[in-house]
Specification:
Length: about 450
């Protein structure tokens, strides 16, 4: 007995650490420098050691969902390595590999999830806690400031607002889980959704606001069922009320930020050479430069590191681009970022990753069981949010948002596969019971004679 307890101890310790990270990572990633990267690498290292040491026991077989997600993560990493091998291993490129290979670390983390089997509730409570903390911190930053500021935590304002918004909507997709705990628990995802919106508004991240109507429609579609229809309508009404309040209150800065964006787009269209130095003009100028860089090197791109910055400075010296973008290092658009730095090869890697995850999440979101549907909806909210965020930010090339994306994609894929496996086992058990009842009802194969 003592030997069995000693053998079980590492499993319990690693399981406890994994659960703790699941609860804390959403808040840490926004409020603590490297708060997401350190736990993420810690889990990856633990998973790799567990595989090498074959602990506990032989490696477990992955479910179809886990294999598909792993394929997507591997495709992303392979195309990154191909691009670097083609364009050159500069010091800056090697440093960027630490960020861009993080999808690869998601594969051993999936194996770790399979081994320690984290409770599903850690997904929903972790996301809810992250969104609530982000919203409260945003309120604190704005209220205590002497003048208008954008809430940003320990990251950039854009990353802060977008990630908090994703957390809130993903937590709201889990309403059914909290409902099983009791009606009083519904306050948790409701608070997460509202405070996630608050953090998004107070961050001033206009690119993230574009995702709000799409995410609201996703929640409406997800809950448009007889048992949850009122919750669906209430969720959308809450989003509409929050948006309306943010527009009406000048203290949020939302309406002013929107008006500025419209004006700056118009000015850039009138005279690019003069008005490319405003925030929106810089973004548009960066997109134009990224497309030009892709056209010069379409297959593998110009290379990672500071290749984009060098391209900008050379173009500015030749009079092609406005001097206001001389210090930039990325285009702030996912597709243009991939095309400029890693070319069509890099774009293929991300497309395969999103296709693989999209198949897992969409299939789950259509499942008749609400437990699996909720997981699929949370995964789709992550993909949909990042698709829109990626229109104005390089979310697949920057540490904090990439860690959040990889970690929760891996976790949701694991939970979906585990739930489907459990459902299949339960169905098989029910069939066995029914077969036994049927065979026991008439043991001699015919009616009894009188």
């Amino acid at each position: 007995m003592p030997s069995l307890m000693v053998e079980a101890l590492p499993h319990r310790v690693v399981g406890g650490v994994t659960v703790l990270i699941l609860l804390a990572l959403p808040a840490l990633i926004l409020l603590v420098p490297s708060g997401g990267s350190v736990p993420y690498h810690l889990l990856a290292l633990t998973a790799i050691l567990a595989l090498l040491l074959r602990w506990p026991g032989a490696p477990h077989r992955l479910t179809a969902e886990e294999r598909l997600a792993s394929l997507g993560f591997a495709a992303f990493a392979v195309t990154v390595l191909l691009s670097v091998a083609e364009t050159g291993f500069s010091r800056e490129a090697v440093r960027d590999l630490d960020v861009l290979l993080r999808p690869l670390w998601a594969i051993p983390i999936i194996y770790l999830f399979v081994r320690v089997r984290p409770p599903e509730g850690m997904l929903w409570f972790g996301l809810s806690l992250g969104a609530v903390v982000a919203g409260l911190n945003a309120l604190y930053e704005v209220v205590t400031a002497a003048q208008y500021v954008r809430a940003e935590g320990s990251t950039s304002a854009v990353t802060y607002g977008n990630t908090a918004l994703a957390m809130g909507v993903m937590a709201a997709a889990g309403l059914a889980y909290f409902r099983r705990l009791g009606r009083a628990w519904l306050i948790v995802p409701a608070a997460a959704l509202l405070l996630g919106l608050v953090a998004s508004f107070l961050s001033g991240s206009r690119g993230g606001w574009l995702a709000i109507p799409f995410l609201a429609l996703l929640l409406l579609w997800h809950y448009w069922q007889p048992r949850y229809r009122r919750l669906a309508i209430a969720s959308v009404l809450a989003v509409v009320a929050a948006v309306s309040l943010a527009l009406l209150l000048p203290q949020t800065g939302v309406k002013n930020r929107i008006d500025q964006a419209v004006t700056q787009v118009q000015l850039y269209g009138q005279d690019r050479a003069v008005h490319a130095d405003n925030p929106v003009g810089k973004r548009l100028e960066l997109w134009r430069a990224a497309w030009s860089m892709f056209q010069e090197q379409p297959l593998f791109g110009g290379g990672m590191g500071y290749s984009f910055n060098r391209f900008l400075r050379e173009g500015i010296a030749d009079g092609k681009f406005h001097p206001s973008i001389a210090v930039q290092t990325m285009p702030h658009n996912v597709v243009l970022d991939l095309l400029a730095l890693r070319g069509l090869v890099g774009l293929v890697g991300v497309v395969v990753l999103w296709w693989a995850l999209g198949r897992v999440f969409l299939s789950a979101a259509r499942h008749p069981e609400m437990e699996i549907r909720a997981l699929g909806a949370a995964g789709l909210a992550l993909l949909l949010g990042y698709a829109v965020f990626g229109m104005t930010d390089s979310v697949m090339d920057y540490g904090p948002p990439l860690v959040f994306f990889c970690f929760y994609s891996a976790l949701i894929a694991h939970l979906v596969g585990r739930a489907r496996l459990a459902q299949g086992a339960l169905a098989a058990q029910h069939r066995q019971v029914e077969d036994e009842r049927a065979s026991g009802a008439c043991p001699h194969g015919g009616a009894a004679s009188v």
